[in-house]
Amino acid sequence: MMERIYKWTMQKAAHEKAPHALFWISFAESSFFPIPPDVMLIPMVLAKRAKAWFFATICTIGSVLGGILGYAIGYFLYETLGQWVIQVYGLQTQFEAYRAAYNDWGLWIILIKGLTPIPYKIVTIASGAAAFDFWVFLAASVVTRGGRFFLVAGLLYWLGEPIREFIEKRLTLLTTLFVVALVGGFVAIKYLF
Predict the structure, then answer these.
(1) For the whole model, what pTM was predicted?
(2) Which of 8, 13, 3, 59 is nearest to 36 (CA)?
């Protein structure tokens, strides 16, 4: 079954409308959507390696613009929409501690968390709720999200066919590791912050 899903994903990744979907998933993931754009970025780069940098740029722009929406949710709508998003993930207590930490460590929190599997929407909403300097938030988001997506695209670009063969041979293991990393990000937020 995983092989069928993989083949379907690779076929969709090569579709002409895939970059539009990549943008919107990147945008939504930074403010409310639980699935990271890597789910599309990886197969798209594997399907069209020559466009790796283009796809990383789309992810970065979508993620940063979505991060601005997340910031706005935290800044303007925290009492309504922002709290609801935090409650959906069961992170109310951790979020308050996280928001308080912004007074001393805001820039570092954005830079470090933007590179990890910890959901970026938590960072963006917390930045707005803490009224963290918007321009510093924006610059840090460009650096951290761009760094993350360009690193993924670069590795896939340079490793190319060998990495594709590796993925195809170990698809179930990699899927399991991806799910563990995704769930681990949510668990880390719940218990570490």
Answers:
(1) 0.74
(2) 59
- Give yes or no for a contact between 156 and 13, defined as CB atoms under 8 angstroms apart: no
Distance in angstroms (rounded) separating the CA atoms of residues 79 and 158:
46
d(CA 96, CA 188): 15
Amino acid symbol at 180? V
Cα(first)–Cα(last) distance of the chain, in Å? 37
Task: With CA atoms as reference, report the closest residue to 154 among 12, 23, 67, 41.
Answer: 41
Nearest CA to 128 out of 184, 86, 89 is that of: 86
- Helical residues (DSSP H) of the chain, grouped into ranges: 2-13, 18-29, 38-47, 52-76, 83-88, 92-113, 120-129, 134-169, 171-192
Residue in the structure block whose two tokens are 């909403």: 125
Look-up: residue for tokens 């695209």? 153
Tens-digit pLDDT profile for residues 104-146: 788 887 877 777 656 788 889 888 988 899 999 999 999 989 9
